[in-house]
Amino acid sequence: MGYHEASAALTALKKEPEFVWLNEVSSVPVQQALRHLQTAFTNFWAKRAAYPAFKRKDGPQSAEYTTSAFKWDGKALKLAKMDAPLAIRWSRTLPKAAKVTTVTVSRDAAGRYFVSLLCDDTVQPRPEANGKVGIDLGLTHFAILSTGEKIAAPNTFRKNEAKLAKLQRRLAKKQKGSANRRKAKLKVARLHASIADARRDFLHKLSTRQVNENQVICLETLAVSNMQKNRCLAKSISDASWSEFVRQLEYKSRWYGRELIGIDRWYPSSKRCSDCGHTVKSLPLSVREWTCPECGSIHDRDINAARNVLAAGLAVSVHGESISPICI
Q1: CA-to-CA dists, residue 244 to 73, 134, 147, 200, angstroms
Q2: Which of 35, 103, 288, 316 has its Cα between 20 and 30 A from that of 113?
Q3: Using one digit for the tens of pLDDT, what is the confidence trace for 100-115?
Q4: Phi–psi pair at 132, nearest 5 degrees
Q5: DSSP symbol at 23
């Protein structure tokens, strides 16, 4: 069954007494849902995605309104079949003279509602910065910069792990279908949302700061999916969200005219002396500070690695082999 057959079936369904409630909302979001379903099946048959799954009633929800189903006057937003505009607390201002083409209303598992407005916008490159930085990502410290600065890991999940486990135990004891279970489930969802929001806020602030301060940013490529196979570190690696940090650096660098350089993951950044270039044969993870046997320089393991990453990145840039790092 394709979109046209599904649309005809929906029209017939609205006439049945059992589904008369479908007429209480605008037809546009319902038709958009059918279009999304058609796209999902098209991607499945083209082997670009998995088989479409049924949506959960208590999971994230969304409704998409196209131009004919909303009114936007630059200040207030009114959706079809609504008597009054939405009471919105704006997180940002829209570009001047922006033409809004699509409005998506969504609700997350924590019961929070969001509105996103789709419009055309142009990001202007920023003035060239003077800084150049190498970044070494870690767990104890989220990022170690070649300048010697160490940025502590937020550990948003670890800090709330005990509280989350307590709420999940309470949820497991509630009777299925009861009001108390719904309340307990909402508390768990709200804590998950709080953890995700705190992590996202930290990553955006750090990535924006690095892009604002530096013209060239160098860091190692990371095979995160392989690293997560270590069951002792998998939870901490997931909590760190290195992949999301690199993703933000990539698109912000494109926006603002910065150069993001990826270093080969096998480059011996920790074992190589950043002063003389001597590479030691072995350097266990337990060794956090070491002395170069060639020149006698004393190195902090992570700061030395960040400096080597910067040096290698600048060498790559000079030879015109710039590669954006990708966390797989």
Answers
A1: 35, 18, 23, 9
A2: 35
A3: 999 999 999 999 999 9
A4: -135, 130
A5: G
